[in-house]
Amino acid sequence: MSRNLPPLCSATGLLAAIGLILPALAWLWPPAGWLWAADPPLGSGSTVPIALVASFGRGQRDNGLAWLEQGIFAASNHERQQAGRPLLWDNAVLADIAASHSLDMVRRNFFSHNTPEGIGSGERAAQHVRSLFGLVSENLAMMTERPNLAAAFVQNWLTSPGHKANLLHPDSTDLGVGCAQTVGAGGLREFFCTQLFMNVYASLAQPFPVTAYAGQSVDVALTPRQQPMPTRLLQVDAHGWEMASVVLHVYNGMAQGSLTLQGPPGQYRMQLEVPDRHDAQRLWIIPGPYVQVR
Predict the structure, then answer these.
(1) Could you report the per-residue pLDDT of 136-175, keeping only the tens digit for each?
(2) Torsions phi, psi of 102, nearest 5?
(3) Rounded distance, CA 82 to CA 77, Å?
(4) What is the 8-class DSSP label of residue 215?
């Protein structure tokens, strides 16, 4: 199958202050040169139907590519170590999401952070990462078969400022690598690989439910990986408007509370409110899972 595809693509998520979430910046590198692009804002914009997001579920892995995925992960951590950056945790959920996106690009013949329906890396993470709050960034690449393929992927990303920034970002904590393959022109195998990074701020003791009813209370216990402690958990709609919230209190080193979800029926995002340690008048917003309220 003949393709005229850009070789690299990266997207970076940004924190936002004072109750707002800014769009994630995206770098694109097509053969013609550099372009700017923007992913949809995390927590704002039009609602993505939950059934549509869920169609890119877990379990669609090519087990024959484990060598490539593990090689890219190891080479990425090697480059971070060389640059004096913290090593990344191997996150199996992020790897499943990355592999599903790579396979979707192969099956539907596109190359982008966003699917043809407009679903980006932020939406995929919010649907499938049920226990973590944090920011995501993503690198994509397609390469034909060659010696030392895993190292070639990483070195190719390092030649691009946007991809290199994602790969070596000092705040990233977790990484999932997922690949898919097809046969291109001339019979050569083509490999599509996705790196999905996450800067995890806090983790839930129990996964947040995928669906719930209006009026249902959900108990949460959050263990922070970073400081300061989150002070509130919010349910926000597609435009970022607060629908419900709970003040979190610290018990046994965890931020705990019980959030009563509100309607009307639809898809909502959970997010944390964290005080800025340098400015008491400013708050950071940390995105988390989606929930479908019935």
Answers:
(1) 999 999 999 999 999 999 999 999 999 999 999 999 999 9
(2) -60, -45
(3) 9
(4) T
Q: Is the Cβ–Cβ distance between 202 and 49 less than 8 Å?
A: no
Q: Are strands 174-183 and 89-90 parallel, antiparallel or unpaired?
A: parallel
Task: Report CA dihedral (171, 176, 182, 186) to the nearest 10 degrees.
Answer: 40
Closest CA to 234 of 268, 187, 185, 282: 268
Residue for token pair 């539907």: 108
Question: Which whole-number Å values give the CA distances from 100 to 61, 167, 212, 227, in the listed order?
Answer: 7, 20, 26, 33
Q: Is the pLDDT of residue 7 over 80?
A: no
DSSP-derived 3-state class of residue 53: helix
Cα 263–Cα 265–Cα 267 angle in degrees, nearest 5: 100
Tokens coding 43: 């927590």
Closest CA to 41 of 53, 56, 25, 52: 25
Q: Tell me how far apart the alpha carbons of residues 52 and 54 are, in angstroms, rounded to a whole number.
A: 5
Within a 10 A sphere around the Cβ of 259, how many other Cβ atoms? 22
